[in-house]
Amino acid sequence: MTKAARMRQAFKQMCFSGDLVNMVVAPDALSAKIAERTGFKAIFQAGYATSAGKLAQPDRGIADFGLMSETAREIVNAVDIPVFVDADTGYGDEQNIDRLVHVYENMGAAGLFIEDQTWPKRCGHMDGKTVISEEAMVSKIHAAVNARQHDDFLIMSRTDAYAVTGLDDAIERTRQYHKAGADLVFVEAPKTKDDLQKVADSFPDVPVMANMIENGKTPLLSNEEIHDMGFSIAVHPNVLIYTSTYATEKLLKDMVELGTTKRQLDHMVTFPQFNHFIGLDDINALEQKFATAPIKL
């Protein structure tokens, strides 16, 4: 079985197991490898962190399909756990969605979500969102489901209608997206625990995702609380990009003010530790295995 097939199968089993799938969004391959080494069983690659990490730009539709797919490929290649990807609005019509499903499936992603915002989209916890019609989004879901080559490659629907037309419409849209073939569902940015609970209760037999953004519009809950409410998937989309920004700024301020990094040494891995972590030992061993004797003249 190929790595891609193993990852698709593993992710599908997680989502339908009844246990909570706990995912963190990785901005890059290194953070994905750290997440894998610390015990995460699946990784999410999403627009906010990719736009921030690669472009230092907000999640306002600036990161295009080329950047998103290349970052996803780097992450998939770096880890041996499933990677679920953010396909934004599909970057166009049904033909674009057909292509992106093939690209992500062939690179080894475990699945993707498509949202019903208009383009250029924005982070689901930002103000000013607008959505396409329910019928247009149903057509996109149909296109994504039709394009996939393996049933284990999971399609998630995301609706941002809660902020535009209210909770009831968001739930009804999601029902229609599920009927169109979405395996997993996601209602973005409910503002209260009661509304979160209503979302979970509306889909008792479908894996539903909850999005936990620090200081976002949705109450920040623990994984245990999320699972008890009936959600199957928890994603933490911004914690790594926020934490790395905080730590990097503290370090660089010290370097400017003190002219040394000595005060931060206890907050760093060492040179040997880092080289070992990123696989230098394996590279050196491979080099030795295929090394040839020098030519003598």
Automatic annotation (TrEMBL):
Keywords: Lyase. Its EC number is 4.1.3.32. PROSITE patterns: ISOCITRATE_LYASE. CDD domains: ICL_PEPM. GO terms for molecular function: 2,3-dimethylmalate lyase activity. Pfam families: PEP_mutase (PF13714). It comes from the Bacteria. InterPro entries: ICL/PEPM, Isocitrate_lyase_ph_CS, Pyrv/PenolPyrv_kinase-like_dom, Pyrv_kinase-like_dom_sf. PANTHER family: CARBOXYVINYL-CARBOXYPHOSPHONATE PHOSPHORYLMUTASE, CHLOROPLASTIC, PHOSPHOENOLPYRUVATE CARBOXYLASE. This is 2,3-dimethylmalate lyase. The gene is Dml.
